[in-house]
């Protein structure tokens, strides 16, 4: 009888339609988050390791032990073209779990990036490789390979639940998780929001005020806002 999910590798996960993933990749994190009803964000301490990093792809999930990166090597075997790795830890750790050698291995398997609630290193090399990484910390502190975690189980990273096959989108504004079964619908909703914002953008260019575009004057007056001429 198992008492936990440690020491498990799930070798078969469901991934969303690649066309839906490609459509979703056209939108920024803020747009997707708003289109889903303001849910799905990781905590804002997860930041790009270098300027310009961005990614979008189905998640292969990794549960790490603090100071131990063994499971990244296990996860590499489970990567399919277009996947990203999302790594959480059994407890908070900012050690340098990931660097250029692992990125080289994962790139050869078709991996498109990493989101980790932990530390990374070799950032200059990662930037040269154009391997996008979003992390809790940048830390040269090395790790060992001694303790089992798991691959392709549900993990919590920066307060967000990520299931294998969920799509993770990351850019300079943060990281958002889209449930696998909703990727097409969220892409549709994001396009609708983008179209609506373009209409508003054009009105702002023409000099229309948000006060009028959003019908704010009456509720502001009802709330007691007064205009006073001295």
UniProtKB/TrEMBL annotation:
What cofactor does this one take?
a divalent metal cation
Q: Which reaction does it catalyse?
A: oxaloacetate + H(+) = pyruvate + CO2; 4-hydroxy-4-methyl-2-oxoglutarate = 2 pyruvate
| EC supergroup of this enzyme | lyase
This protein's assembly is summarised as: Homotrimer.
Family the UniProt entry places it in:
Belongs to the class II aldolase/RraA-like family.
Q: What does this protein's UniProt record list under function?
A: Catalyzes the aldol cleavage of 4-hydroxy-4-methyl-2-oxoglutarate (HMG) into 2 molecules of pyruvate. Also contains a secondary oxaloacetate (OAA) decarboxylase activity due to the common pyruvate enolate transition state formed following C-C bond cleavage in the retro-aldol and decarboxylation reactions.
**Protein name per its UniProtKB record:** Putative 4-hydroxy-4-methyl-2-oxoglutarate aldolase
Organism of derivation:
Microbacterium murale
């Amino acid at each position: 009888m198992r008492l936990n999910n440690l020491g498990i590798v799930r070798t078969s996960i469901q991934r969303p339609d690649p066309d839906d993933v490609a459509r979703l990749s056209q939108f920024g994190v803020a747009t997707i988050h708003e289109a889903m009803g303001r849910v799905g964000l990781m905590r804002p301490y997860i930041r790009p390791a270098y300027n310009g990093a961005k990614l979008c792809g189905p998640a292969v999930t990794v549960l790490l032990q603090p100071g131990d990166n063994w499971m990244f090597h296990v996860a590499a075997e489970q990567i399919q073209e277009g996947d990203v790795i999302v790594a959480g830890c059994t407890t908070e750790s900012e050690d340098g779990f990931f660097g250029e050698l692992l990125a080289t291995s994962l790139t050869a398997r078709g991996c498109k990036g990493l989101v980790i609630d932990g530390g990374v290193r070799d950032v200059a090399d990662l930037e040269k490789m154009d391997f996008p990484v979003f992390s809790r910390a940048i830390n040269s502190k090395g790790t060992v390979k001694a303790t089992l975690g798991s691959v392709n189980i549900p993990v919590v990273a920066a307060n967000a639940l990520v299931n294998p096959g969920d799509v993770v989108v990351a850019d300079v504004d943060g990281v958002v998780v889209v449930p696998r079964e909703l990727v097409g619908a969220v892409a549709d909703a994001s396009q609708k929001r983008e179209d609506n914002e373009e209409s508003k953008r054009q009105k702002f260019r023409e000099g229309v005020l948000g006060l009028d575009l959003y019908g704010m004057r009456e509720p502001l007056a009802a709330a007691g806002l007064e205009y006073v001429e001295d």
